[in-house]
Amino acid sequence: MIIVVFYKKDLLEFFKIKLNIFLLLFFILWLIKNFLLSGCFIFPVNLTCINVSWSPGVDEIETYKNIIKSFARDTRERLRYTDFNHTIYTFNWFLPWFKDYALNTALLKISFFIIFFTSISFFLLKRFTKLLTLGSNDYKIHSLVFIILVINLLIWFQAPEIRFGWGTIISINCYLLSTLFFYNIFFSKFHSNTLKYLTIFFLLILIFDNKKNFTTHNLLNPYITKVDYSKIVKIYDLKDVSIYRSLNRKCYDFEEICVNSVKDEYFLEKKFGYLIFTKYKLF
Fold first, then answer.
1. SS3 sequence, the chain?
2. What digits encode the pLDDT tens for the residues 214-235?
3. CA-CA distance, 53 to 13, in Å (whole number)?
4. Is the pTM of this model over 0.70?
5. Cβ(266)–Cβ(282) under 8 Å?
6. Which residues of 241-273 are buried (b: 16+ CB within 10 A; e: fewer)?
7. Using one digit for the tens of pLDDT, what is the confidence trace for 27-63?
8. Quick one: residue 258, left, alpha or beta (phi over 0 = left, psi -120 to 50 = alpha)?
9. Rounded to an integer, what distance in angstroms lies between the CA atom of residue 170 and that of residue 217?
10. What separation in angstroms does the CA of 202 have from each of 36, 40, 167, 181, 211?
11. Residue environment code for 47-71, b if the CB has 16+ CB neighbours within 10 A, otherwise e
12. Cβ–Cβ under 8 Å, residues 42 and 30
């Protein structure tokens, strides 16, 4: 739809660009992969699912989607992620999530600062100076980019966990900063070769700083982190498994079930070959 609106009669021009064709093929392959794994072209959106033999079923997919959304919208203590009335069917989750999660996540705090800084800079430079060279002909492409970023941001807010939004959040930050820099009148004073040399220079610094890692031994032998598990103790047995607790909050890659804070009760359920571990009975 976005392509049709912005290309209109020049839609054929879209397919003349090799990069666009590559991205379109990549998107089609991504849809096929999703379907082969789950029976859904866009998992876990039920409208894109087909009732095939390997699909877990509409009800199971809906349950999975609600749990993921609810867990991501809860605070870091995850005390109400099974309360769908709080996390899914109302917006009561937003303020607690924002205060507890968003304001305590480094990337989001950096993003808030960049958005505030670039917004104020754009307003001041455009309103009181002539340092910005952004013209009316540039608004078409920037409107397209803005719509795409907003759509991605709305999709991320369905399950606002930071690991689900790395690409979108970093893209917004880079887009705002690069636009502020690129359309600044001082940018025209930089020769294109200067920027290339600066990029190469910083890459060389990174390579030099990590030269100890560029060895044949490191290439042939993956790095394995040495973790001290001496602070992990067993707290009780549950069915056929044991529950452990880390006294220093480091359950890193521990082979058994390990928790940092102990709850009053835990439940274990097996679904599709997976062991679901929770403090509430979900099924």
1. CHHHHHHHHHHHHHHHCHHHHHHHHHHHHHHHHHHHHHCECCCCCHHHECCCCCCCCHHHHHHHHHHHHHHHHCCCCCCCCCCHHHHCCCCCCHHHHHHHCHHHCHHHHHHHHHHHHHHHHHHHHHHHCCCECCCHHHHHHHHHHHHHHHHHHHHHCCCCCHHHCHHHHHHHHHHHHHHHHHCEHHHHHCCHHHHHHHHHHHHHHHHHHCHHHCCHHHHHCCCCCCCCCCCEEEEEEECCEEEEEECCCCCCCCCCEEECCCCCCCEEEEECCEEEEECCCCC
2. 777 777 777 777 788 888 998 8
3. 41
4. no
5. no
6. eebbbbeeeebeeeeebbbeeeeeebeeeeeee
7. 999 999 999 988 999 988 888 998 888 888 888 888 8
8. beta
9. 33
10. 42, 43, 23, 18, 14
11. eebeeeeebbeeeebebbbbbbbbe
12. no
Mind listing the pLDDT tens digit for each residue in 191-201?
A: 667 777 888 89
Task: Tell me which residue has tokens 């719509």.
Answer: 147
CA distance 254 to 229: 8
Which tokens hold the place of 72? 């991501």
How far, in whole angstroms, is CA 223 from its chain's centroid? 25
Q: Is 113 exposed, middle or buried (0-12, 13-18, 19+ CB in 10 A)?
A: exposed
Of 253, 263, 265, 235, the C-alpha closest to 78 is 263
With contact defined as beta carbons under 8 Å apart, do 268 and 238 qualify?
A: yes
**209-237 residues labelled b (16+ CB within 10 A) or e (exposed):** eeeeeeeeeeeeeeeeeeeebeebeeeee
